Amino acid sequence: MAGAAGPSSSLLALPTLRLQPSPLLIPTAFPGPSHQLSPLLGFATPSPIIPAPLSLPPDIPERSVKHAKVSNALWTQELKDKFQHDLCLAIISSGISWNAISDVQLRHFLAKWIPGVEIPDCRKLSGPILDKQVTHIISKTRLHTTGRFATGQCNGWKNIAKASVVTSMIIVDFEGVLLRTHNISAEAKTGRNLLQHVMEDIKYAEKEYEVTIAAWCTDAAGDAKKMCKDLIKQMPWIISLNCSAHQVNLVICNLFKLKSAYLKSVDKATKVIKWFNHHSCALGLLWKEQLGTYQKILTLIQPVITRWTCHFLSTRHLLETSGALHSCCIKEEKELKKCGGDWQQDKAKARKIIQTVLDVEFWTDITLVKIHLEPLVAANILQSSNAHLDTTLLTWGNLYRIYSDPALDDVVCAQVLSSLSKRWLQMDQDMFISAVIMNPYVRGKGFARGNLLLSPVGLYNITKHTCKHML
Q: What is the CATH number of domain 146-241?
C-alpha cells in the first residue's frame, strides 16, 4: 500500500500495553509463616488455600482457611479493578475464548492460588470490563495522535460467521489504529453505501483521535473505486490511493493468464501438492524421505490466488524438496500407487503424479516460474506499515527495470510491463512523483532526463500542483 499497510492485512500495531506488577503478588500481602519461594516466579506465594464455596482438598491444612478470611480484607475495590483489568488483557493477548473464564477447573485454580479473588463471568469480562479497557486504550492512543496527520483505509471480507463486514483503520506515525467494523450483510455492495460508512469513520477518527485525515486507501475494487471518486468530491483536499500490494497481486493474476507452455507447469505443481497433502500415507512416505535427505520436514504449500506471494512460496518449497520427491517416487513407487486408492481412476491419477515428479522438463519449467515470480514478492514491501509514497514509486520503477531485462522470457516480460503500465496510469501520478522529489536521498535523480515533463521545471510544476491540491 502506498503510505499505509495493505487493507487486507490483519496486523494492527495498537499502542503498546505495559502491565505493571500487581500488588497481589507482593509477598507482604499474605501474612503468616506458610510462604514458599517459587523458583519460577521469583516471589513468595502462599500455601494453597480454597475459599468457600469450593470444597477444601484433603492436602490443605485447615488453618489456611483463616488466611483466606484475612486475604478478603486485602481485596480493596482498587485491587479488584486492577485484577479484572489484567485478566481481561491476558485473555485478549492469549487469544482464548471469553468462555474460558467460565471453565470450572480454571476458576478452581484461580480461587486456590489467589485467595479471596472475585472472578468475573464471561459476560461481565467481555462487556463492562472490556468496554472500560477500550475507553482507556482510546484515551492512551489519543495522546500520540492528537494534532497529527493520518492515512485512512478500509477493506471488506467475510468473517468466521460468514457475515460481510467492512473495517476501517488509520495509520499515524507508522502505527495502526483500528477504528470500527460495520456489518453490511443486509446492504447492497455499492459505492454510495460504502461512502456513508467511510464518512462516518472519518468523523469518528477526527473526533475520538483528533487527527486530520490526509489520504484514504482502498483496494480499487468496483464499489471502492466509485466510493473514492465520490469522497474526493466531498473532500477535494484528500488523496485517494489504490493499495499497491493489491496492484502487484493483480500483476501476478495477469501473468498467469498467459498461454505460455511453461506456465502450465503451475497447474501440474498444484496437482502434485494437492495429491500428496490429501493422501496421508503418501505424505508420510515423503516426510520419511525428507528426514533422511534433509534431516527436516518441508511443507508443501498449496497456492491460493487471494494469498499474496503464495505462488512464489509454493514453487520455492516444491523446488527445495524436489530431491526427496524424486527419490520417494522411485523408491516407493508401488506403495504410492496403493496410496491413491483401489479404483482404476485413482491408480491412474497416482501414476500421472509420479510421472510428473519424475519429468525433468517439469522441474525446469517450475524453476523458470520461480525466477519470474520472485521480483513480485515486492508486495511484502508495499503492504508494510512504513511504506511511503516514494517507496511505492521506487519499487514500481525497480520492477519495471527488472522485467526489462532481455535475459528473461520476452512474452512474460511484455505481459508484466503492460500490467505495470496499466496500474501506473490509474494512480495519482503527481502525488507519487512529488513524494520522490521530497525524499532528500533521491530528489530528481531517479527520473529520466530526456522527458521534458520530468525536467527541473516540470518537476517543480508537479510539486506545486500537488501542494495546491492538498492545501
A: 3.30.420.60
